[in-house]
């Protein structure tokens, strides 16, 4: 099994590890962790709203609430759960839903809540550094508790105050433990401040690493029960405190009781997970894995020269020497026999950047597929279902080589494949083909064209006379909303925020000015100045993930955060076919890298283009990210064709309507 | 990929007169002992284009070329050789084979092209932009090295340059003026200039005569404009000129895009095409079509003329002058040796194993000696191509020259920068410098020629 595959699934739980103090401790036992890079709680002042862009506020996670709700011994059992992808686990969800409701999830609280995850990881590292972590861990529990105090005392944290009370009642005990713990803790504390400061910005990277370690730990835990028990007994040896011992002892006889339970649970879960894997798009290639890259290269149609100077943090994403792919693909025009011309054309247009934007790319792809299906004929001795699926796979891998697929395209492909798979065998070839073509047409029509219209109808109700709307870049749906609102005679003003290097907003600006909408155009640098006068923010999205994260053109997160700081409602317009069950916590794990030259080159400014000549310098790495992830806390509402929903309802849409793709 | 390939092989070109004769049409002129047409055919074969139409002017040439193709490519290519009358021009030739054209796009390649640019790039550019015509341009060849170039030919070559106008992205063709027109003022259409805003005018590019045409458009133009004779001089400039006020009936996406805005909301297809159009950066064509307000009631019809500019690292030359002929021969065994298809020896030359060399005879690098040729003693060959079954006496110096098949060269001859055609006899002590000797000519002993064209009188 590819360990990387797990990372995405595990994310939420590991974050939860940060919330419940004990979990970190358990992790220590189960496996070694990497060098500590995350700051402890005490250094992130909980009251400050300053989030570094890569930090992600905690997801509203049922188990978070659960861990907060239960008292310490109970919490000690929860750590075993992080191994499981909780989001996909209906039992877990249902069991903790009441708690979810209790922990009213308001943004202020969530902002405050950002720090604990790091603290959790931080302390788990420290515990690791010192092999006798039992004492430390106890202390760290305490520290975490105290670190959480501001959070629980937050004015609107209704539930948390209750939890805090519980903890406060516990506190004396914990304190006494601390005294026993003695000198070691002092050491640890001394270590921390020096460690934390320079590492502050890198937190998310550290987090990722921690995730990896955690996975390994999970594996180790699953496999070597003996190992674990050894470590546990080692620690148990030094254990003096009963309360702290309790969970460890449980672990001690882990193979017998609790871990057996875990494995049971796992066993129960595995099959659905495997099923899911079939549906889900294959995990993204990790481009820092040399072996896989080599393999992929052998398979690939397009010859790709990888860019040399890549940013370390983003090595797992594909980045190619810009300008090498297109000529190569072009020269192979006549040599790619199995590729249908229309597919080829679309791929070429992706590669050259002629087609941009989630919807347009998806529509272009579907239309190309439909062309290809029309011209398809089943070779003798083969069945249409299988052969066509293989063909489509071929097409898709070709398109991926041209440009990584967007989530929306992934969903559309999934739909098409399921349609192909479900074709009745009794259909003749011509019937099957026409049914597929009409399916594709219907998908485009229902999921994109009509969906957009419905979204416009919904969104337009949120525009009132005198509003000042702000939009970022150029989203097709937002454009339609504005045009429609103008048609209805609403009096409003539009602020278009744009950014280098593409200046997509200018096209939108041109259109709006033409029809007589009063517009302001500015670049993203000025967004905090212009935000004062704005009353609504409308944003487009490339995808929405099931934790409510909005994945969109880079810069969107920034706009949403500024809007949130100014208490301006942020409405995201997104068709439901772009929703995905995946959970995304940061914009690092999955993203796309654009042409790095695009940011170093300023058109028309020869005087400052000197940087461009030095692109091949060894110590210069250019990063042109295409997307970013906006945390759900900054989004007031998502407008879909199913209505206007809060970010918390995204999983509902995915669950209730996601299957509908398949069952149309 | 739905492309059809037409190779225009020409006939008995007049510009190459002492080289081309009744027996050797232009397409069969040897370049490194291989007919020049084989370079195009092999390029196409490499690119998986195996169904070709070769159009030849005049029946007799068609017989010769057809015979050669069927012997050389018997089971490798599927070639149809079509003969058309002489002097009807390239456009006329295509008009004549009109009924053979069925694919949605036509790739027209000149038979005298020696290049290593894959035709796929032209086709891909064509498809990507959904263009009406895509032309391949390459940088002007540096004609003649200092030692070999004859001054008269050089001047001629200098006059033959084109003025080509490109848009700033170097993807669209805005202006073409060729040859003679350049002497006059260059007239640029205001409407195009206004729509594009900026035009690059280049004189350093050469039309490589590799075009991709949309079939429907090509046929329409050919049928409507009876007077059009040449693709390069008539059809291409016409398409470029009229790109913003297209009179062509285009089927496909473009006409849909330009469909009426009013029923746009009803017709989902138009909504989609608008959606696609919104997503891509519009070319000046689309902007112009929409008119100054972006919402004109009757959108103007446009079509796109694209170019593909071959990079300088590619080799791309046309064999259309005598100078070019010797240049290409020199390059194919020299700088662009990958085109020749031969493997070079350690001395960087090709000597057929059946060739016989006398004692103290040296064959320098970048030379080629065909099969069955014999050389006497104390000869010296530098940067030259010698064909099959030549008999060369002793003390002969051959520098920078092309000697075709079955040539007999007497003792003590000196040949520099010359082309000697098949079956020529050079008697003793002939000195040739920058000469062309027509097929079957006999040069008398001891004569000296410089910069002359020697050929048999046509009877």
Explain this structure.
- The complex is a heterodimer of chains A (664) and B (459).
- Helix content of chain A is 56%, strand content 7%.
- Chain A has 664 residues and is α/β, with parallel strands linked by helices.
- Among the domains of chain A are: 290-446, Four Helix Bundle (Hemerythrin (Met), subunit A) (Up-down Bundle); 462-591 and 626-660, Translation initiation factor eif-2b, domain 2 (Rossmann fold).
- Chain A has a seven-stranded mixed β-sheet with strand order 3-2-1-4-7-10-11, with helices on both faces. Chain A has a four-stranded mixed β-sheet with strand order 8-5-6-9, with helices on both faces.
- In chain A, α24 links the parallel β2 and β3 (518-523).
- Chain A starts with a helix and ends with a helix.
- The longest helix of chain B is centred in the first third of the chain and has 14 residues, at 59-72.
- Mean pLDDT of chain B is 78; it is low at 144-158 and 251-266.
- Chain B has a seven-stranded mixed β-sheet with strand order 5-4-1-6-12-8-13, sandwiched between helices.
- In chain B, β9 and β10 form a beta hairpin.
- Chain B folds into two domains: 3-142 and 161-249 and 303-318, Alpha-Beta Complex (Spore Coat Polysaccharide Biosynthesis Protein SpsA, Chain A); 348-454, Hexapeptide repeat proteins (UDP N-Acetylglucosamine Acyltransferase, domain 1).
- Chain B contains twelve helices and 32 strands.
- In chain B, 25% of the residues lie in helices and 25% in strands.
- Chain B is an alpha/beta fold and 459 residues long.
- Chains A and B meet through α17, α18, α19, α22 and α24 of A and α4 and α10 of B.
């Amino acid at each position: 099994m590819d360990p990387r595959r797990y990372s995405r699934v595990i994310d939420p739980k590991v974050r939860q590890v940060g919330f419940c103090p004990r979990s970190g401790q358990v992790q220590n036992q189960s496996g070694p962790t990497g060098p500590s890079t995350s700051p402890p709680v005490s250094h992130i002042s909980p009251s400050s709203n300053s989030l570094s862009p890569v930090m992600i506020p905690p997801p509203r996670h049922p188990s978070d609430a659960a861990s907060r709700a239960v008292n310490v011994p109970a919490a000690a059992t929860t750590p075993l759960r992080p191994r499981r992808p909780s989001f996909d686990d209906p039992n877990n969800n249902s069991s903790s839903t009441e708690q979810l409701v209790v922990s009213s999830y308001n943004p202020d609280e969530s902002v405050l809540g950002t720090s604990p995850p790091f603290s959790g990881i931080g302390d788990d590292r420290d515990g690791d550094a010192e092999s006798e972590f039992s004492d430390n861990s106890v202390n760290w529990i305490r520290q975490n508790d105290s670190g959480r105090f501001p959070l629980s005392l937050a004015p609107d944290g209704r539930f948390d105050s209750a939890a805090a009370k519980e903890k406060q009642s516990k506190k004396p005990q914990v304190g006494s433990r601390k005294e026993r713990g003695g000198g070691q803790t002092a050491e640890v504390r001394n270590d921390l401040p020096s460690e934390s400061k320079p590492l502050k910005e890198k937190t998310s990277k550290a987090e990722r690493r921690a995730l990896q370690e955690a996975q390994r730990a999970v594996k180790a835990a699953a496999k070597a029960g003996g190992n674990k028990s050894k470590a546990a007994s080692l620690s148990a040896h030094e254990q003096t405190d009963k309360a702290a011992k309790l969970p460890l002892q449980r672990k001690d006889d882990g193979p017998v009781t609790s871990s057996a339970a875990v494995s049971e649970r796992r066993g129960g879960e595995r099959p659905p997970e495997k099923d899911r894997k079939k549906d889900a798009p294959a995990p993204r290639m990790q481009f820092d894995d040399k072996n896989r890259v080599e393999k992929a290269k052998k398979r690939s149609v397009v010859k790709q020269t990888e860019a040399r100077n890549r940013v370390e943090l983003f090595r797992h994403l594909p980045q190619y020497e810009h300008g090498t792919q297109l000529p190569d693909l072009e020269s192979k025009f006549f040599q790619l026999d199995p590729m249908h011309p229309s597919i080829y054309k679309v791929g070429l247009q992706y590669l050259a950047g002629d087609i941009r934007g989630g919807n347009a790319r998806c529509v272009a792809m579907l239309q190309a597929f439909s062309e290809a299906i029309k011209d398809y004929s089943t070779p003798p001795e083969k069945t249409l279902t299988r052969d066509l699926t293989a063909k489509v796979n071929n097409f898709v891998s070709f398109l991926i080589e041209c440009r990584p697929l967007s989530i929306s395209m992934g969903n559309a492909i999934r739909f098409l494949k399921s349609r192909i798979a479900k074709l009745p065998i009794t259909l003749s070839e011509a019937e099957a083909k026409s049914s597929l073509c009409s399916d594709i047409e219907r998908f485009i029509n229902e999921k994109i064209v009509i969906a957009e219209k419905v979204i416009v109808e919904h969104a337009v109700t949120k525009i009132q006379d005198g509003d000042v709307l702000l939009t970022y870049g150029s989203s097709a749906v937002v454009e339609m909303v504005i045009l429609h609102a103008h048609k209805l005679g609403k009096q409003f003003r539009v602020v278009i925020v744009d950014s280098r290097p593409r200046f997509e907003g200018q096209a939108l600006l041109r259109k709006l000015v033409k029809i007589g909408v009063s517009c302001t155009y500015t670049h993203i640098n000025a967004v905090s100045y212009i935000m004062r006068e704005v009353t609504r923010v409308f944003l487009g999205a490339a995808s929405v993930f099931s934790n409510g994260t909005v994945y969109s053109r880079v810069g969107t997160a920034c706009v949403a955060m500024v809007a949130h700081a100014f208490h301006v409602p942020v409405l995201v317009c997104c068709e439901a076919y772009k929703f995905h069950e995946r959970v995304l916590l940061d914009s690092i794990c999955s993203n796309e890298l654009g042409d790095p030259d695009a940011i170093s080159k300023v058109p028309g400014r020869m005087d400052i283009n000197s940087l461009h000549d030095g692109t091949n310098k060894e110590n210069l790495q250019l990063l042109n990210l295409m997307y970013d992830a906006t945390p759900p806390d900054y989004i007031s509402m998502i407008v879909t064709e199913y209505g206007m929903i809060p970010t918390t309802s995204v999983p509902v849409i995915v669950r209730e309507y996601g299957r509908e793709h398949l069952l149309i | 990929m739905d492309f059809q390939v037409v190779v225009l092989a020409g006939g008995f070109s007049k510009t190459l007169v002492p080289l081309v004769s009744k027996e050797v049409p232009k397409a069969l002129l040897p370049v490194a002992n291989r007919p020049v047409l084989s370079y195009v055919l092999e390029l196409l074969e490499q690119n998986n284009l195996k169904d070709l139409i070769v159009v030849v002017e005049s029946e007799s040439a068609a017989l010769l070329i057809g015979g050669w193709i069927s012997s050389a490519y018997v089971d490798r290519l599927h070639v149809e050789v079509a003969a058309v009358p002489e002097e009807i021009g390239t456009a006329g030739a295509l008009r004549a084979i009109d009924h053979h054209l069925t694919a949605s796009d036509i790739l027209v390649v000149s038979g005298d092209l020696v290049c290593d640019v894959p035709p796929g790039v032209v086709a891909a550019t064509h498809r990507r932009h959904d263009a009406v015509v895509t032309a391949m341009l390459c940088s002007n060849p540096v004609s003649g090295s200092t030692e070999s170039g004859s001054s008269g030919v050089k001047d001629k070559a200098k006059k033959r340059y084109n003025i080509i106008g490109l848009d700033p992205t170097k993807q669209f063709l805005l202006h073409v003026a060729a040859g003679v027109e350049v002497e006059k003022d260059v007239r640029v259409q205001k409407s195009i200039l206004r729509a594009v805003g900026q035009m690059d005018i280049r004189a350093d590019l050469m039309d490589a005569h590799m075009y991709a045409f949309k079939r429907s458009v090509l046929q329409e133009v050919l049928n409507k404009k009876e007077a059009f004779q040449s693709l390069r001089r008539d059809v291409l400039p016409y398409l470029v000129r009229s790109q913003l006020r297209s009179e062509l009936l285009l089927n496909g996406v473009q006409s849909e895009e330009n469909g009426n805005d009013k029923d746009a909301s009803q017709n989902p297809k138009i909504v989609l095409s608008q959606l696609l159009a919104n997503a891509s950066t519009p070319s000046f064509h689309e902007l112009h079509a929409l008119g100054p307000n972006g919402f004109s009631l009757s959108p103007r019809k446009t079509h796109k003329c694209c170019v593909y500019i071959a990079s300088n690292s590619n080799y791309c030359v046309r064999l259309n002058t005598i100078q070019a002929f010797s240049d290409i021969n020199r390059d194919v065994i020299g700088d662009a040796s990958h085109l020749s298809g031969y493997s070079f020896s350690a001395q960087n030359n090709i000597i057929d194993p059946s060739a016989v060399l006398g004692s103290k005879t040296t064959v320098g690098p970048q030379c080629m000696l065909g099969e069955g040729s014999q050389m006497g003693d104390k000869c010296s060959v530098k940067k030259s191509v010698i064909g099959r079954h030549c008999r060369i006496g002793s003390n002969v110096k051959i520098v920078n020259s092309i000697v075709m098949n079955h040539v007999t060269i007497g003792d003590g001859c000196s040949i520099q920068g010359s082309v000697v055609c098949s079956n020529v006899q050079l008697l003793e002590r002939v000195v040739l410098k920058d000469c062309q000797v027509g097929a079957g000519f006999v040069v008398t002993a001891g004569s000296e020629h410089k910069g002359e064209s020697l050929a048999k009188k046509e009877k």
